[in-house]
Amino acid sequence: MASVLIQHGRVVTAVDDYFADVLIEDGIITQIGKNLVVQADKTIDATDKLVLPGGIDPHTHFDMPFGGTNSADDFESGTIAAAFGGTTTVIDFAIQQKGESTLKGLDIWHDKAQGKATIDYGFHMIVTDMQDDRLHEMDRLATSGVTSYKLFMAYPGVLYVDDGTLYRTFRQAGENGTRICMHAENGIVIDEIVKAAVKAGHKEPLWHALSRPTRMEAEGVHRAIAIAEVAKVPLYIVHLSSSDALEQVRLGRARGVDVQAETCPQYLLLDENMYRKPGFEGAKWVMTPALREKWNNDVLWQGIRMLELATVATDHCPFCMAGQKDLGVDSFTKIPNGAPGVENRMALMYHAGVVQGRISLNRFVEITSTQAAKTFGLFPKKGTIAVGSDGDVVVFDPKRTETISYDNKRTHNMRVDYSAWEGWEVQGYPDVVLSRGRVIVQGGSLMTRGGGQYIPRARVGNLLR
Ligand code: URP
Ligand code: ZN
Ligand code: ZN
Fold it and tell me: Domain with 74 in it: what CATH number?
């Protein structure tokens, strides 16, 4: 029986904070207590360190075909980078090709991940069309552990679906006890604004932001909540970026709709001035929704404190500047949308959240791990440190400082030729990262590759029906 003993650390979960030793045997936490007297195959000294549940990033796009190219990290490089950053589970997005079976889409994503992933993973299913005769597939997906769907109001002609498709899918998802994830932005109106900007001769990355008013995100959030309310399905707004959109979540929750929302470090810490950098550099942050005016950052932090925002994910969707982002050098409309970040989320949120005094340590654990596990049917297997839970543990050094940089191999293992967080100095960094008791990262080195498993997720239930 392989065993690891983590000694003398400060164990922090979403609700607890105490000093104890943690024993992991055969991948599962079997004992937690003071001064455990046990013989373990391996001992890790966590004196002066935090012992945290591994991070869960419920929003990644590995090896995703998009904008005429594929996101630059696959399941091999993406999960290794995640591990370096203290994330031990990702939920990636499988895609249904229009007119084809969702089950076929799932098979394709299993093939992409199997044997390549270093950390554990699950899948959401992106639905691109859902006629009545395909609804039965959704129950089969749920049975195989895919218990959430993503639908898009954005990207007309690509991933966009109309309101009828939304309603049909929402209803079935609700009946099955599963959850809807929504990319909520009025892509039809945005497309008209984009066309007018192009006609007026605008080409630069800044126009990606200027053509996407926050009101169109708020409209999408409002509509998604209204449809979910009628269809009676639990809803999760992905990558919420603005105060206007958050206001709609607040209103929906106040009238009893089961709606949660996710934001990302980029919407908490960056702003649209990134697009004003000289030349084509702003393309690094061309993502949808776009970065917003600076004042939105504080409103979103407030949303985290007031429990209006449930989780912080990355929406990791990296494209290299050379050969990918530069497809749009002559027009902002052709820049592949997305940015890297799976490796940086835990450190950024600890630094900007806990060290800078915006959130408590328990809330940090909740938004980066525990809540995603609960929302997406992984809890208590993942998302906490408890007897019986998986030994997904981060021994986190609260004093260690790093400068995030493309050139710093301790902070950049993503297969992309820039860092979206270049030069950011953070205090607090993972020292040892364990996935089901396997030490996968220690002292800035990768200790093992592969071994990540597909984790079927439970249905989330539906109290509205
Ligand atoms: O720009 C983004 N966010 N790219 C990934 C696809 C999505 O909308 O999540
Ligand atoms: Zn999206
Ligand atoms: Zn995304």
Answer: 3.20.20.140
